[in-house]
Give the backbone structure.
Amino acid sequence: MQKSSIYTPRFSAGTSFIIRRLAWSLDKPMTKAVEQLVMALPAIKDPSKICLACQDRTDCKGCIFSRQLSAEEKSAILAAL
C-alpha cells in the first residue's frame, strides 16, 4: 500500500473564481472556505464509498469517512455552510 503525502493543489482560474465567491458567501478566506467545504463532503457523499476507495489505511479509526453520519450530524454540517 502506498503512503499518502501532502499535496498542495493548484486550481484553475475558473475554479479559483468559484472558490473566491464561495469564500465571500462564507465570510472566510479562501483557504478556510475550502477547508470548510471539504469537511462538509461526508454530509453530501456516501462516506462508505469514500472509505472503500481509500488508499491510506493508516488511521481508519480517526477518519470521518469510516462511519455513517446521523441525520442530525449531516444537518449540522450543512447548516454551518
In short: Helices lie at 13-26, 30-44, 47-53, 71-79.
